[in-house]
Amino acid sequence: MSKKKQESECLGRSCGGFSTKIHAVCDALGNPIRFILTAGQEPNFNQAIPLLTGISGDYLLADRGYDSDKIVEFAEENGIKPVFPPKKNRIIQIIYDKENYKEINLVEHLFLKLKHFRRIATRYNKTATTSLAFIHLIPTILLIK
C-alpha cells in the first residue's frame, strides 16, 4: 500500500504496525456527537477545532494532548471554558478546574464502549469510510441493547 493511500485511509505507522486514532466530541451525558479518524501518529490538537466547529457548550473537557493556545483561544471565543491539564512542557502553566475535569471519565467510558467492538479495536475495516460508518453505528446498537 502506498504512503499516500495509507494517509487517505487514516492508517499511521508505529512500531507495532498500522494505527488509527478516533477523536470524539460528547455531550454532558457521554453521548457521542461527532467523530473524526486520523492516522495514529497525528497529534491530537490538529483535530480539536474541526471537531468543535458548530458545537456549543459550557465546558471543553479534554486530555492534555489537546492543550494548545489555539484551542484555548477558539474555545473562549465561542463561550466555552476549557478544562484540561496543561502539557508538562508548557512554559506558563494554566490553572484548570480539577473538580470539573473529573467528568472526563464520561468520554473515557465512550471509548471503552467503542473498544468492546472487536471490529473497531483492531481496525478490521479496510477503508476509513467504512470504519467511521461503523463507529457511528455503535451508539445506535448500544441504545437498542
Structure description:
The chain is of the alpha+beta class and 145 residues long. It has one domain (3-144): Nucleotidyltransferase, domain 5 (2-Layer Sandwich), CATH 3.30.420. The chain has seven helices and five strands, in the order αβββαβαβαααα. β1 and β2 form a beta hairpin. The longest helix has 17 residues, at 128-144.
Note the topology:
Blueprint: H1 3-8, E1 12-14, E2 17-26, E3 32-39, H2 48-52, E4 59-61, H3 69-77, E5 81-83, H4 98-101, H5 105-115, H6 118-121, H7 128-144
Parallel strand pairs: 4-5
Antiparallel strand pairs: 1-2, 2-3
Largest sheet strand order: 1-2-3
Radius of gyration from the alpha-carbon trace, in angstroms = 16 Å
Assign an overall shape.
globular
How many distinct folded domains?
A: 1
- Reading the helices and strands in chain order gives HEEEHEHEHHHH
Report the CATH topology name.
Answer: Nucleotidyltransferase, domain 5
Give the mean pLDDT: 83
Give the oligomeric state of the chains in this entry, treating copies of one chain as homo and distinct chains as hetero.
Answer: single chain
Examine the secondary-structure arrangement and name the CATH architecture: 2-Layer Sandwich
Q: Which blocks of ≥5 consecutive residues have pLDDT under 50? A: none
Number of helices: 7
Distance between the termini: 38 Å
- Our estimate of the beta-strand percent is 15-25%
Query: Based on helices, strands and strand pairing, what is the structural class?
Result: alpha+beta
Q: How does the major sheet shape up? A: 3 strands, antiparallel
Question: What is the CATH level 1 assignment?
Answer: Alpha Beta
Strand segment count: 5
Helicity range: 25-40%
